[in-house]
Amino acid sequence: DQQVKQNSPSLSVQEGRISILNCDYTNSMFDYFLWYKKYPAEGPTFLISISSIKDKNEDGRFTVFLNKSAKHLSLHIVPSQPGDSAVYFCAASAKGTYKYIFGTGTRLKVLA
Amino acid sequence: EAGVTQFPSHSVIEKGQTVTLRCDPISGHDNLYWYRRVMGKEIKFLLHFVKESKQDESGMPNNRFLAERTGGTYSTLKVQPAELEDSGVYFCASSPGHSGNTIYFGEGSWLTVV
After folding, report:
1. Closest listed residue to residue B47, CA positions, set B78, B16, B26, B18
2. Which of B1, B33, B76, B105 is most deeply packed, by most CB within 10 A?
C-alpha cells in the first residue's frame, strides 16, 4: 500500500516557466513533509520542508503548498532552470516518528 | 562539515556472496537510517537507529540483512547471502535528535548481485 504517491512519473517544462510537482498521501497522521531532489548517481538532496501547521513554505524559487483536507502537496519551481532537471521525491512522516515514507519520484526535465 | 559518507560506492557480487556496506553519519547526529531504492521505485525505509539502538527495523526485508551501529557512530549493513533481488541503491541518512527533522542522505551504495 503506497502511502505517498507521485502519480506523474515525468514532467517537461520550458526554461523560465513554472514547474509544478504533485504529491498525494493517504495517512492522515502525516504531519511533516519534505521534498528532495536527486541527480543521477547521487544521493537525494534536501530542498524544502513543510509542517502541517502551515499551508505554504517558500525558499527562493521553491514553494511548497500543503492542502491537508485533500491530503495533497505540491512543489512549485519558478522560474525553472535547466539545472533543476532531476528526479524529485516527496516524503512524509507522522508526528513523533522518525520514519519517512517516500513517493516513487517525478523526473523533471527543464528544456532550454 | 562532512556529510553522510557511504562505502563502497559500487559493489558487484555473485549470488550467495556476502557484502557489507558502511555508513558514517554527520557528526553529532544520533539518528541513522538505512533506505533502499530498487530501479525506478520509491526510496524504501529499512531501519532506524538512535545512537546504537535499533528503534525501528520494520522495513528490513528478511533475516539475510543485518544492520549494526556499534558505539553509536558508524553503521554497517550486511547482506548474507545476497540474492538477485537485493540489487539496488542503499542509502544511508542521518538527522539530529528529535523527530520532525530533515534527514540528510549519503551518495548511496550501488549493489548489483549477479
Report:
1. B78
2. B33
For the segment B42-82, what is each residue's pLDDT rounded down to a tens digit? 899 999 999 999 999 999 999 999 999 988 899 999 999 99
Beta-strand relationship, B109-113 and B10-13: parallel
Q: Where residue B1 falls among pLDDT bands split at 50, 70, 90?
A: low
**SS3 state at B53:** strand
Collect all residues of chain A within an 8 Å Cβ-Cβ radius of residue B40.
104
Nearest residue to A9 (alpha-carbon basis) of A111, A80, A104: A104
Nearest to B48 by CA among B101, B90, B95: B95
SS3 A104: coil
- Summarize pLDDT for A39-67 with one digit per residue, the tens: 998 999 999 999 999 999 999 999 999 99
What whole-number distance in Å separates Cα of residue A93 and Cα of residue A85?
26
Selected residues 48-107 of chain A with any CB under 8 Å from a CB in chain B: 49, 51, 89, 91, 93, 95-105
Mean of per-residue pLDDT scores for chain A:
95
Q: Which amino acid is at B99?
A: S
Three cell numbers at A95? 508526528
